[in-house]
Design brief:
The chain has 702 residues and is mainly α. The chain has helices at residues 2-21, 32-41, 44-59, 88-116, 120-141, 150-154, 156-161, 164-201, 212-216, 221-232, 242-247, 252-304, 321-330, 335-346, 355-361, 382-392, 394-417, 429-453, 455-460, 462-485, 502-516, 525-540, 542-563, 584-592, 606-615, 620-659, 672-675, 685-693; strands spanning 319-320, 352-353, 369-372, 595-597, 601-602, 666-669. Among the domains are: 43-162; 179-274, Helix Hairpins, CATH 1.10.287; 382-521, Four Helix Bundle (Hemerythrin (Met), subunit A), CATH 1.20.120; 535-571 and 581-660. The two termini are 21 Å apart. Keywords: Calcium, Calcium channel, Calcium transport, Endosome, Glycoprotein, Ion channel, Ion transport, Lysosome, Membrane, Repeat, Transmembrane, Transmembrane helix, Transport, Voltage-gated channel.
């Protein structure tokens, strides 16, 4: 009947608009039952359960054998780790697999059989589950005693396939690889040529005392190649050239040329190429997201224009405002956008909306998220007005910064004076007294700002929330200190009387005061720009961080399988196997500790190529492949991608800063899509209609 058809059209429009909001594809089933299942699947509860399941299955690596549940990783001091009995973690893993089976089944049903065969991610999802379940059965059949578990390496795939932005980022990286490969090939040629030169230059001579360079670094081709590869990361600089330099100063020219060509020219050229190419491919990906949003909105218009109550018009389709209001009441969307669309609808002079007007209404989704601060209170008292003016002025904030700086300087002076003193020789009277004074000032400053700005306006600023929280914590710690140790007085000693000694409590207060000094950042425009750029990266580039987790996890599990129990400290074999590769946690830390330069530049440290690789029996040569692959992916590729995104975000913010004066009461919150909004092209009506007519489950009336 007509009523049932209208309800279906309304539900279709609701789902299409929600697809547009989330940049989802609309190529799914659109019958009543499928729409209910679709909204249930993408509800917060279901997505939360799926995210929790992914987190649990990834966290199993820290619990299952080999377990990371020890306080210390030093084998000389730690107690034997608790290992779960066979079947415990496997039962949890099976529950996770069942959730994934339901997930892939619902996804496959909703997109239909025809679209399923076009979706490579879903087919890979099913293949991963089949392999994981097979490996799970094999594990139980061996009573959980096998060392190699393939399903552990496959676990990051569940995180990867669950994020559309991670898939787009991965696709952009994959498209950038050919351009990266050309520079990496050039690096390989550079490395090979200089390796040959080094073997000729530092060849073995008759005088064994003069062959230290040959013995240590260039004894054979693999050692020479390894030495120069590590030099490319600057990890063994200048150690690698010291023996030759001691023999003849002219040998330094070889190492200088290698470093200048490799590090300063080729590596920076790689960064430039990655920035240019990755930005282009990411822009294409964001362009496709915009097309999905426009397509979802247009699909909602088309189904609403098919309502029986809408007057027929052979020339142009229209949607009634009443129908749109009915849809908006049920759509899950940001309240700010919904209210803005409602306000625009009230201003419409007609009861009908054309396709252009309908699309324009939902352009509110593309705008910056604006947070406007509440107004300050209005006082009638002349005295209160003067107080509000004085303590709400920016100069009062500058005074607080000066006081915070004085607090930091006083703490530094006391720490320098007491650096060499024994705890029993310290007199914390001066430090305790000045801390008490400054904390009272911070408390007074917070109260005066609340009076001047109002409580709601005060809390609307992140810097004020930061200040207020630390002030309250400092006040509580100070009161606890006075309650346990009394008020500061000459001879105030750090005796241990409670949970923390006096010195520990004072030190904790000082650390929080130092941390509080970060309040000056919003007052320094350029520093604030840099900090907001970093915060935006943290908030918006979750997909980038997710792929980084995938890479770390996969290499960590591979490292456990390759090197577990194989690495023994040189000269101290009696201690037993080192714990660097024996558990998930220590393996991650081993990989993470190779981040030893600025901007998280991951390098191969000399220790990995000497202590570790020389002590790995039988697989020493092949272990180098693992570390070189880790360096290439984490340092050469991944860090350069991070620099590219950092540059893009910073340049975008700098351009906005130059073209628009910031408003004090407005905060603009950007997303990855909005970063490229100014250069994106709007799809034409013909492109949208052509794509809609290709929808596998939707039959349009025109």
């Amino acid at each position: 009947g007509t009523g049932a058809d209208n309800d279906l059209y309304i539900n279709q429009a609701i789902v299409f608009i929600e697809d547009a909001i989330q940049y989802r594809s609309i190529n799914h089933r659109v019958d009543s039952k499928s729409l209910w299942l679709y909204r249930w699947y993408y509800s917060r509860t279901c997505q939360w359960i799926l995210s929790l399941t992914i987190t649990v299955i990834l966290a199993l690596a820290f619990i299952e054998k080999p377990s990371s549940l020890t306080v210390t990783s030093d084998v000389r001091y730690r107690l034997p780790a608790w290992n779960p009995p066979c079947g415990l973690t496997e039962s949890i893993e099976l529950l996770c697999f069942l959730v994934f089976v339901v997930d892939v089944s619902v996804k496959s049903y909703l997109i239909g059989w025809e679209e399923f065969w076009k979706n490579k991610w879903l087919m890979a999802y099913i293949l991963t589950l089949v392999v994981s379940l097979t490996d799970w059965i094999v594990s139980l059949s061996f009573s959980c005693t096998e060392d190699v578990r393939i399903r552990r390496i496959l676990r990051p795939f569940f995180l990867l396939q669950n994020s559309s932005m991670m898939k787009k980022t991965l696709k952009s990286i994959n498209s950038t690889l050919p351009e990266m490969a050309s520079v990496v090939l050039l690096l390989a040629v550079h490395l090979s040529l200089f390796t040959m030169f080094a073997m000729l230059l530092f060849a073995r001579t008759r005088d064994g005392q003069q062959d230290k360079e040959w013995v240590v670094y260039f004894r054979n081709l693999p050692d020479a190649l390894t030495s120069l590869l590590v030099l490319l990361t600057t990890a063994n600089n200048p150690d690698v050239m010291i023996p030759a330099y001691s023999k003849n100063r002219a040998y330094s020219i070889f190492f200088i040329l290698f470093t200048v060509l490799g590090n300063l020219f080729l590596m920076n050229l790689l960064t430039a190429i990655i920035y240019n190419q990755f930005r282009g491919y990411l822009l294409k990906s964001v362009q496709s997201s915009l097309f999905r949003r426009r397509l979802g909105i247009r699909a909602a218009f088309e189904v609403l224009s098919s309502l029986k109550e809408t007057p027929a018009n052979t020339q142009q389709s229209y949607v009634s405002i009443g129908a749109l209001l009915q849809v908006l009441q049920k759509v899950e969307m940001d309240s700010r956008c919904k209210q803005a669309i409602m306000r625009s609808l009230k201003k419409c002079s007609s009861d009908q909306l054309s396709a252009v007007q309908f699309q324009k209404l939902f352009e509110e989704l593309d705008k910056d998220a604006i947070k406007q601060h509440p107004p300050s209170p209005e006082y009638r008292s002349h005295f209160m007005q003067k107080m509000q003016f004085a303590f709400g002025h920016s100069y009062f904030g500058y005074l607080g910064n000066v006081v915070a700086l004085a607090n930091i300087i006083s703490i530094c002076v006391v720490l320098v004076m007491d650096a060499d003193k024994q705890p029993s020789e310290r007199d914390d009277f001066f430090l305790g007294a000045i801390n008490c004074f400054f904390i009272l000032y911070y408390l007074l400053e917070m109260l005066l700002k609340i009076i001047a700005m109002g409580f709601k306006r005060y809390l609307s600023y992140p810097s004020n929330r930061f200040d207020g929280l630390l002030t309250v914590i400092l006040l509580v710690l100070e009161i606890a200190t006075f309650a346990v140790y009394g008020f500061p007085h000459p001879g105030w000693r750090p005796e241990f009387m409670g949970l923390l000694s006096l010195w520990d409590m004072v030190r904790l207060v000082n650390m929080l005061i130092v941390f509080r000094f970060l309040r000056i950042i919003p007052n320094m425009k350029f520093m604030a720009l840099v900090v907001t750029t970093l915060l935006d990266l943290v908030k918006n580039l979750r997909a980038f961080a997710g792929i980084l987790v995938v890479v770390f996890y996969a290499f960590a599990i591979t490292g456990i399988m390759l090197f577990k129990g194989a690495v023994v400290p040189l000269g101290n074999a009696s201690v037993g196997p080192m714990n660097s590769w024996n558990t998930g946690q220590t393996t991650l830390m081993t990989l993470l500790e190779n981040v030893n330069s600025w901007c998280s530049l991951v390098t191969l440290r000399v220790r990995l190529f000497t202590t570790y690789l020389l002590s790995v029996n039988l697989i020493c040569r092949w272990a180098k492949i693992y570390f070189v692959a880790w360096w290439l992916i984490s340092s050469v590729i991944w860090v350069n991608l991070f620099v590219a995104l950092l540059l893009e975000n910073f340049i975008h913010k700098w351009d906005r800063r130059c073209h628009r004066e910031p408003l004090s009461d407005i905060e603009y919150q950007r997303t990855v899509e909005l970063m490229f909004r100014d250069v994106l092209e709007e799809p034409t009506e013909e492109e949208l209609m052509e794509k809609l007519h290709q929808h596998p489950h939707l039959q349009l009336c025109r």
